[in-house]
Amino acid sequence: MPLDQIGQTLASFYDDLIAEGVPPHLAALVRRVRQGQVDPAAEGGQADRFPAGSRPGNLAIVVEDEEDVRHLAEALLEETQLEVIGCASAEEALDVLQKRGGDVALIFADVRLAGQMDGLQLVRAVATLWPRTRLVVTSGQGVRTPDLPRDAVFIAKPWRAVDVLVEADLATKHPAPPVS
């Protein structure tokens, strides 16, 4: 999926904000997330999927199309301080991010995913829209460093539990500084 289509997908529900050095559709999404204008109960009826009362920066999203691997990563991360949501596609993860972006401390994403976007496109979008989120990319195939956002981490498959737990710990104890 070309980058401009990703932007259009992210901006499909935003129409009219002006950006300062950022494409209008990305600036609109950032403003809406910062203003807390996204209500899980009102959008798609998935409020039960997003428990109330969670504190900011305590959510991990596992994005993996192989169900067994996704469940393994979810179970591992559930042993940390993080609340965990699993997604089979980047589009599903973006839906969660649109609702809970400010709560997301960690994205753990495979490169190959179900849907039109791959994991690299997802982490690039997240790096732009939610720059405080720790990004971990995984794959059974190598990934070139230039393909990753600057602060993203690559963990090769089969990954070791300790490597994933270290990244979860870093996401909760050493979050990126606020963006001004």
Automatic annotation (TrEMBL):
Enumerate the UniProt keywords alphabetically. Phosphoprotein
Extract the InterPro entries matched here.
Answer: Bact_response_regulator (IPR050595), CheY-like_superfamily (IPR011006), Sig_transdc_resp-reg_receiver (IPR001789)
UniProt cross-references to Pfam families, sorted A to Z: Response_reg
Q: Which residues carry this modification: 4-aspartylphosphate?
A: D110
- Mind telling me which residue stretches traverse the membrane in this protein? none
Instruction: Give start and end of each Response regulatory domain.
Output: 59-180
Q: Which Gene3D superfamilies match?
A: 3.40.50.2300
Q: What is this protein called?
A: CheY-like chemotaxis protein
